[in-house]
Design goal:
By secondary structure, the chain is α/β, with parallel strands linked by helices. The relative contact order is 0.14. Strand 2 and strand 3 form a beta hairpin. The protein is globular, with a radius of gyration of 23 Å. Helices cover 41% and strands 17% of the residues. Strands 1, 2, 3, 4, 5 and 6 form a six-stranded mixed beta sheet that branches. The two termini are 36 Å apart. The protein has nine helices and six strands; from the N terminus they run E-H-H-H-H-H-E-E-E-H-H-E-E-H-H. The chain folds into two domains: 185 residues, Lambda Exonuclease, Chain A, CATH 3.90.320; 27 residues, no CATH class. The longest helix has 23 residues. Helix 1 packs across helix 2, helix 1 crosses helix 7 and helix 7 crosses helix 8. The protein binds iron/sulfur cluster (SF4). The site of iron/sulfur cluster has 13 residues, from helix 2. Iron/sulfur cluster binds next to helix 2.
Length: 265
């Protein structure tokens, strides 16, 4: 593995993977080993892509009635979102744009983010992200994840806005009432601060320095400690020799070197 082979472009998914397990990052990002998605996951992804495309086209002012008529599930979600009384569909913004790309460079890496919707007023801005999986996430978890951290960081780095002037809102558009199963979209709002911006900056420096070091070595990236119990559900468990079967194979094929007699040459 050579450092120059790596494209030096990073996203929030790369950062999450690096923190989850550096070896898994190496398998999937550096060595391009793909993992087949389950049919259930694929179905969810396709629905999510349709929803994102719909919201983007609506934002562009394209006529959407024909699309809505053919997709009652999508229509129900958009209707439920409008019924929340949210100001999402327009509230005096100076600028609003869907699928808005922002990028910055740090420590030799190019970071790119794409906002589902960016809303800008005189002295503040909001990043909106559509979530189409069924269960909403807790605010504390969302605050910690790399999507929130990188998206907010990128907005401050690429505009004149101070950290306190930006925020991020996740909309869980498929959430249903647990009792009557009626669609009830929920949102989680996350504020930002100078302290969190500085912390993210330090973390990005640390992670990119570490990554450059790993890419420059002729050794595999480190594996996550077994005590963290992440290997059992990982598709690379055999490749990493972290499952029982691969250890059995090792036991069968690798003889005890101490019991091999020395051969005199
Ligand atoms: S099996 Fe474990 S060490 Fe290997 S990539 Fe997966 S999580 Fe990392």
């Amino acid at each position: 593995m050579q450092a120059e082979k790596f494209p030096l472009r990073l996203s929030q998914a790369h950062l999450s993977l690096l923190e989850y397990c550096p070896r898994r990052f190496e398998h999937t990002v550096v060595d391009y080993l793909s993992i087949p998605a389950s049919p259930q996951l694929l179905e969810g992804q396709l629905w999510g892509e349709r929803f994102h495309l719909f919201m983007q086209q609506q934002e562009m002012g394209l006529p959407m009635s024909a699309v809505m008529a053919q997709d009652s599930d999508l229509q129900a979600c958009v209707d439920a979102l409008q019924l929340t009384g949210t100001t999402l569909f327009g509230s005096g913004e100076l600028f609003r744009h869907s699928e808005y790309e922002q990028a910055f460079t740090l420590n030799g890496y190019r970071f790119t983010v794409i906002y589902d919707l960016l809303r800008v007023w005189n002295n503040r801005s909001e990043i909106v992200d559509w979530k189409t999986y069924l269960k909403p996430r807790k605010q504390a978890e969302l605050k910690r994840n790399w999507q929130t951290r990188l998206y907010l960081y990128a907005l401050v780095e690429s505009t004149d806005l101070a950290p306190e002037q930006v925020e991020m809102t996740y909309w869980f558009v498929r959430t249903r009432n647990q009792i009557n199963q009626v669609l009830e979209p929920q949102h989680v709002q996350i504020a930002y601060s100078q302290d969190r911006h500085e912390q993210t900056h330090q973390d990005l420096l640390r992670i990119t320095e570490q990554l450059t070091d790993w890419l420059g070595r002729s050794q595999p990236f480190p594996q996550v400690p077994e005590t963290m119990e992440r290997c059992g559900s990982c598709p690379f468990v055999s490749r990493c020799r972290r499952n029982q079967d691969s250890r059995e194979v090792e036991r069968v094929f690798l003889p005890d070197l101490g019991r091999i007699k020395e051969v005199t040459l």
